[in-house]
Amino acid sequence: xxxxxxxxxMEGISGLPDYTYVNSSEFNYETGRRIMxxxxxxxxxxxxxxxxxxxxxNDSHSKMNNILIExxxxxxxLISGDxxxxxxxxxxDDQVDLAAFIGYHARAGKKGVMSHSMTFGVRNFWxxxxxxxxxxxxxxxxxxxxxxVILVAGDxxxxxxxxxxxxxxxxxxxxxxxxxxxxxxxxxxxxxxLIREKTLDALGQKSIEPLKPPKKPTLRVEFTxxxxxxxxxxxxxxxxxxxxxxxxxxxxxIIDAYQAMVAMTELxxxxxxx
Length: 274
Description:
Strand content: 15-25%
Mean pLDDT: 97
Radius of gyration: 18 Å
Organism: Terrilactibacillus laevilacticus
Largest sheet: 7 strands, mixed
Low-confidence stretches: none
Order of helices and strands: EHEEEEEHEHEEHEHEEH
Number of helices: 6
Oligomer: single chain
C-alpha cells in the first residue's frame, strides 16, 4: 500500500500573477481557489491512476482553507484550517511513503512570482549553513521521516530551487516569472495536463533520496526589522544575534526547529509599524 502526501500552496499555481488571486479579501481570489483546486485534482487523479492507494492533501496557503472541498477528488482526504501544529507540513509523518509539493514559489529575496518565506517579515531562514525557503524547510521535515519529495510544481524559479536542493527530483513549470508580480503562464487546462504527465513520470522513476536534515540543527531567522526579532525572541532559548535582526534557536530535531519557526513568524507579525 502506497500513501502519497501532497502540500498545495497557492502562489505557484498557474495563472496567478499577484496577490489579488491569493488573498481572500481581494477580487480575484475565487478564481485563484478554483484553479488551485483544479491543480490539486490533477495530481490526485494521476496518482490514483498510477496505483497509489491513499492520498492526503494539506492546504498550505495562508489560513489554509482555500481548496474547494466540494470540488476535491472524492477519494482524497483534505487537511484544512488554521491553526495547525505543523502548518504547511501537517499530516506528514512516518506513515507517508511519498511527498509532492504543488503551487510552490521561490524563497524570499529571489526572483519568482510572489516569492517570500512564510511572511513578508522574513528575509532568510538557515538550517545550519543552508539557506532555505518554505520548499527546503518542508523537504527537510519530509526527510526527517525518510519521505522523499518526488515532485515540485510551480514557477520556474521554484522549480530551479527544488532541483538545486534535491538531486533527481521531477519538476513541473506551470509559469515563468517575468517579475515578482507578472508571469508568462500556461492556461490552467494545459497546466493540469502537464501536472498529470509529470506526476506519472515522478511516480515511475527510480527512487529519490530524502533530503535528510542535520541532527540537532541550528535554526536562524533573519527578519526585516528589529521589532520582529524582539517578538520572536520571546520564545524561550531564542536569542538575537548582536547588531542584527537575526534570531537563533538550537533545536533538538528539525521538527522542533519547524515549530519554533512557525511560532517566531506568527509572533513577529504582531509588530506594529509607525
